[in-house]
Design a protein that fits this description.
- The chain has 119 residues and is an all-alpha fold.
- It has a domain at 31-107.
- The chain is built from two helices and no strands.
- The longest helix is centred in the middle third of the chain and has 85 residues, at 26-110.
- The chain is elongated.
- It comes from Lacticaseibacillus chiayiensis.
- This is YtxH domain-containing protein.
Length: 119
């Protein structure tokens, strides 16, 4: 209970001191407070409009993605699959040649040196 009384007394005394030593009159202070709150209201309105514009922009972006990116990704995927299908025989043939070359190189490395071979 003592804390509450002290807090209330401090608030009252602080308010009175502030009002008595203030360099501005009551109407001036009222105008400043009104201007401050009008500024806050204007700021809130601007933020609200910005949020609405952001929401609309995100909606437009989502529509754009649905209309352009998804079909483009399907086309790209189809093109890659077609390319892989068409090049599969060539890739397999190249892999066979590489395997044969690797086997030949390995055979050369394991073949014992002959008398005609010089170190």
């Amino acid at each position: 209970m003592k804390f509450r009384h002290g807090l209330l007394l401090g608030a009252v005394v602080g308010t009175l001191y502030g009002l008595l030593t203030a360099k501005k009159s009551g109407p001036q202070r009222q105008r400043e407070i009104a201007a401050y709150f009008n500024g806050i209201a204007t700021g809130v309105t601007q933020v609200r409009h910005s949020i609405n514009r952001l929401s609309q922009t995100l909606t437009n972006l989502s529509v754009e993605v649905d209309q352009t990116l998804k079909p483009a990704m399907k086309d790209i995927t189809n093109s890659v699959e077609t390319f892989e299908f068409e090049t599969a025989p060539r890739t397999a043939a190249i892999q066979e040649h590489v395997d044969k070359i690797n086997e030949a190189v390995n055979e050369l490395g394991t073949k014992p040196p002959t008398s005609t071979d010089k170190p």
